């Protein structure tokens, strides 16, 4: 009789799964395939974008305003250094401006002297008042004569009696020794030696004229001094303007060297030379304008200091002369000229040093 072999299935778990488990294990889901993306039509190469002209102008003016404000703020961040530079520019601008003011006042005073200068035309004793009045009208119509005044012998004697203090002597005279006189005021603003000589000869040619006294040497000296003063003012102004250019140019050069790394970075990312130079140009402009404003302050203080003395001196000479300053329009011209000088100095420094800084 065959012996039964013990089943080992009871002692160890069966590795054969049940039907349901088998179906569950063997039934595997396939991964869903992702939908293929639709083909996209891409342009080959760089994409060109049109920028409106108005946007270009807006960006241009925006960078100008930003550069102007930023350059001014940089100057105000170092007030002591900026003030020293402004003072140097102010002194260099104020000196020729003061000489110009003095020359203009001297020229005004000279015109007053020229207007008060007179040519004395002495008439012959037999010339009547009617004949003298006819000569006065004829001479006053000439283009080279500004004014003619007739002083009769009686008027001349009365003035001499009042001013000389010799009234008793004058009263004792049996006959009036003074002739009739025509006081001729010539136009000397554009006059020359030839014109003055021609006027003298034409006056002497009249048969009613006895003598002509023409003492104009001091007027000629005054005119030559004015011409010399004008040349000195322009020469000194040119030298001091050159000094301002050198001061601002050296200051801008130092500013460029201090910002060399920043300039290199801006040029590496595509910044143009004009874009990089714009803040430095505005810095030179601010230096010039600040120096011009300080020069106005210096001139104003000097004007207040001198004007009182000039008024007292004019009163002693019984003159209504008053010292004249630059005025509003002249002050604006001075500040504008100083600003343009600063801008020119900055431009020279930028052309020399900024273009040499190039990324490698």
Reconstruct the topology from this structure.
Blueprint: H1 19-26, H2 53-77, H3 79-116, E1 119-123, H4 129-140, E2 145-151, H5 153-164, H6 167-171, E3 181-186, H7 193-204, E4 209-213, H8 217-258, H9 260-268, H10 273-316, H11 327-354
Antiparallel strand pairs: 1-3, 1-4, 2-3
Protein name: Cell division protein FtsX
Transmembrane segments: 83-103, 232-252, 285-306, 326-350
Subcellular location: Cell inner membrane
Largest sheet: 4 strands, antiparallel
**Domain unit count:** 2
* Share of helix, binned: 55-70%
Overall 3D shape: elongated
Distance between the termini: 106 Å
Secondary-structure-derived class: alpha+beta
Number of helices: 11
Q: What is the topology, as strand order, of the major beta sheet?
A: 2-3-1-4
């Amino acid at each position: 009789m065959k012996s039964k072999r013990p089943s080992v299935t009871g002692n160890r778990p069966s590795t054969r799964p049940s039907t349901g488990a088998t179906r569950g294990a063997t039934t595997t889901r396939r991964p869903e395939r992702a939908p293929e993306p639709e083909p996209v039509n891409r342009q080959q190469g760089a994409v060109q974008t049109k920028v409106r002209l108005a946007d270009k102008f807006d960006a241009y003016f925006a960078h100008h305003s930003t550069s102007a404000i930023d350059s001014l703020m940089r100057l105000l961040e170092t007030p002591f250094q900026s003030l020293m530079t402004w003072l140097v520019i102010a002194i260099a601008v104020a000196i020729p401006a003061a000489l110009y003011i003095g020359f203009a006042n001297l020229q005004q005073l000279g015109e007053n002297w020229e207007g008060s200068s007179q040519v004395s035309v002495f008439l012959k004793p037999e010339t009547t008042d009617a004949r003298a009045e006819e000569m006065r009208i004829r001479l006053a119509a000439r283009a080279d004569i500004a004014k003619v005044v007739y002083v009769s012998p009686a008027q001349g004697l009365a003035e001499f009696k009042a001013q000389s203090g010799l009234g008793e002597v004058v009263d004792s005279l049996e006959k009036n020794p003074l002739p009739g006189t025509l006081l001729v005021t010539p136009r000397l603003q554009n006059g020359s030696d030839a014109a003055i000589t021609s006027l003298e000869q034409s006056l002497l040619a009249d048969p009613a004229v006895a003598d002509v006294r023409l003492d104009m040497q001091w007027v000629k000296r005054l005119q030559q001094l004015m011409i010399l003063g004008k040349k000195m003012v322009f020469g000194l102004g040119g030298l001091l303007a050159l000094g301002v250019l050198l001061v601002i140019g050296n200051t801008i050069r130092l500013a460029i060297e201090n910002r060399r790394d920043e300039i290199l970075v801006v040029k590496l990312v595509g910044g143009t030379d004009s874009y990089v130079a714009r803040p430095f140009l505005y810095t030179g402009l601010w230096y010039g304008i600040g120096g011009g404003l300080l020069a106005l302050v210096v001139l104003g203080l000097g004007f207040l200091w001198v004007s009182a003395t000039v008024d007292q001196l004019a009163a002693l000479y019984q003159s209504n002369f008053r010292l004249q300053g630059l005025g509003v329009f002249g002050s604006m011209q001075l500040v504008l000229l100083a600003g343009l000088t600063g801008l020119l100095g900055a431009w020279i420094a930028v052309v020399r040093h900024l273009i040499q800084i190039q990324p490698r």
